[in-house]
Amino acid sequence: MEWISKSNILIVGLGLMGGSYARALKRLGYHIMAIDSKQSSIDYALENGIIDRGISEVKEEFVKDADAVIFALYPGVFKEWIRDYQKFLKPGALITDVTGVKSCVVYDIQEMLRGDVEYIAAHPMAGREVYGVENSDDSIFRNANYIVTPTEKNTETAIEWCKSLGKILGFRKISVLTPEEHDKMIGFLSQLTHVIAVALMTCTDNQHLVDYTGDSFRDLTRIARINENMWSELFLLNKDILIKEIDMFEKELKEMRNMLADDDIEGLKDKMRLSTKRRAYFD
């Protein structure tokens, strides 16, 4: 399926992810519009050719020009935007997002959304440890995964449109999950890993460790440089699943601790062999 033939694409939220979408789509020849509450982000994007038009306040005459809208907002702000400004959207517009949790977002927005506008949710599994449009880079999409999370309210046309968006942005693999499947998966693959990285950085205040560290610690804590506002919101919105994942990890950690205490070298080796086998799936 050809991606949307119309050219006006509005990106709401011009941070790292919104800016990276803008760079990729503008390079492909689409007319890119953007709304961001920070005028400095709009100015930077215009000066650097990342977008064609931009404003820092939501205006009807601007929004109604968009054929498709990509929301790169925190979940709560996303819901508020739809509640307050969906009246400005063009009839027939397709909207999608980059939100990191789905069950608590998708159904609420689909419930409140006008019948002549369709929302098909997606999650680009890509990012960096820096923020803002000035750090945007569409190369983060290459070899990354992209997840579409439709519901029974979505049409096949919208689902294919969203999958096509992932393809033209350069994602390696396009997957389709329910919002519930997505949130369980993300609780382990993303949120638990961020919890572990934060815990590693906060369990000791020895500032001299930087003088001795090697690649293993740097790799494990790369994501510990974290946006506390975004990630605390994501954790809480998916807390039931994340708590279960933390409990599972705690149980596994305790097993290894007991093997050490008991000098159980074979048990440790078994764990390591299993770890090596499972890690090979990702190589």
Q: Your description of this structure?
A:
With 283 residues, the protein is of the alpha/beta class. The chain has 11 helices and 9 strands. The protein has helices spanning 16-27, 39-47, 60-63, 75-85, 103-112, 156-169, 179-202, 215-220, 228-237, 239-261, 265-279; strands at 8-12, 31-35, 53-55, 68-71, 94-97, 118-119, 121-125, 145-149, 173-176. The strands form 2 sheets. It has a 6-stranded parallel sheet. It has a 3-stranded mixed sheet with strand order 7-8-9, with helices on one face. The longest helix has 24 residues, at 179-202. The two termini are 31 Å apart.
Secondary-structure blueprint of this entry?
Elements: E1 8-12, H1 16-27, E2 31-35, H2 39-47, E3 53-55, H3 60-63, E4 68-71, H4 75-85, E5 94-97, H5 103-112, E6 118-119, E7 121-125, E8 145-149, H6 156-169, E9 173-176, H7 179-202, H8 215-220, H9 228-237, H10 239-261, H11 265-279
Parallel strand pairs: 1-2, 1-4, 2-3, 4-5, 5-6, 8-9
Antiparallel strand pairs: 7-8
Helix pairs in contact: 4-5, 7-10
- Largest sheet: number of strands, sense, barrel closure: 6 strands, parallel
Contiguous uncertain segments of 5+ residues: none
Which strands sit side by side, in order, in the main sheet?
A: 3-2-1-4-5-6
In round numbers, the mean pLDDT is 94
Tally the helices: what do you get?
Answer: 11
CA-based gyration radius: 21 Å
Shape: globular
Number of strands: 9
Helix percent reads 40-55%
Strand content: 5-15%
As an assembly, this protein is single chain
Distance between the termini: 31 Å
What is the H/E string? EHEHEHEHEHEEEHEHHHHH
Structural class: alpha/beta
